[in-house]
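Entry type: protein chain
Record version: 2
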Amino acid sequence: MEQENRLDAFEKMLAAVRKEYADTSAKIEKMKADGKFKTVTCQQMLARRTMYRNMLSMYRLYGLTEEEPTETV
């Protein structure tokens, strides 16, 4: 795979991880506001958000990004 294609693929993946992190955080906030914070679905969302946060932290650790994801809950 060409270096340029690998960079494009990385940028797409990074954008997807950031979007999933943001979307999952928004869903958690809505569930929290609706009083559904302790449901199984919300707990699964919390686990997914943690996974995405860890991925973003790894990108930062290796110098691939500079920002840290913000925690809302």
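Comment: The mean pLDDT is 91.
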